[in-house]
Amino acid sequence: MGGIWVHGELAGDGSLARISTEVATLARALGDASGEPVTGVVVGAAPEAAATELARYLPRVLAVTEPATADHAAASVVARRLAGLVDEQQPQVVLAGAGPEGRDVAGVLSALTGLGVLANATAVSWTGDGPEAEHSVFGGKLITRSALTTGRGIVTVRPNVVTAEPAASPGTVEAVSAAGGADGPTAAVVERIVAEAAAAPIEEARVIVAGGRGVGGAEGFELMGELAAALGGTVGATRAAVDSGWIPYGQQIGQTGKIVKPQLYLAMGISGAIQHKVGMQTSGTIVAVNRDPDAPIADFADVFVVGDLFDVGRALLAALRARAT
What we know:
Layout: E1 4-8, H1 18-34, E2 38-44, H2 48-54, E3 60-65, H3 74-89, E4 93-97, H4 100-113, E5 116-121, E6 123-126, E7 131-137, E8 142-147, E9 153-157, E10 172-176, E11 207-211, H5 220-231, E12 234-237, H6 239-243, E13 264-268, H7 274-280, E14 285-290, E15 303-306, H8 309-324
């Protein structure tokens, strides 16, 4: 039957996750290149609202009602419903976000259907036989390209590598049922812990003020917070700062943290190691402050300031506050 499918991931409040709008935009482009029909699939206890949102990006969305998603991990329930539909309708490609849920769903879906997976793609194009995925490997030092041996399979796409754009006109939503579901092993959700909210989720922030080892401690991040507040953004960090306990893991940017794409990235005391670069290199404008004129971040920053981050940061903060009055 063919076609390109998109797994519509749900956020904690039941709305459509932002990463699914990005994947849907990519799927639409692949559909134009291949001539394949594009379909979204939303599985949830109440999927209607998220399915309607996904239909702003795709011509057709299937909504599957599965009450068990309310108190079970997505991979143990959603993937089974999705597998039932895949076995029934035989799409050529299933796209999902390469976040925690998308990776889990892709793994279970692969096990249930036998489809291969191209994981963590930074770009996807269409060849004559199917999708070709681009990957950043070895900490971003190499770019590789991979294809599915049969032209059919699953592709997970990294966050913030595609800019979400709604379609010219909204698509349709169809309520469907699917085989499979919660009849196999499931993982129950016993507790939900909501992280302390920042001014904006770091993956969606338009401005990020990020600190590295040079910040020197948790107290140093107080200045980062003041700068972020003055700029209307949020605070990020390198792995070194997170490992030192200066800032929560949820704010980590890089290969083992979040992938971000703000309009402005202010890097304070960050050397620019490749592991951090892969998480923020697509930022609109990168401004870096570092005492070391030979820091690697100087090679890819748009503006590089050589100086003490606290002296520069306080001067910048004073200027921002004066401008606001």
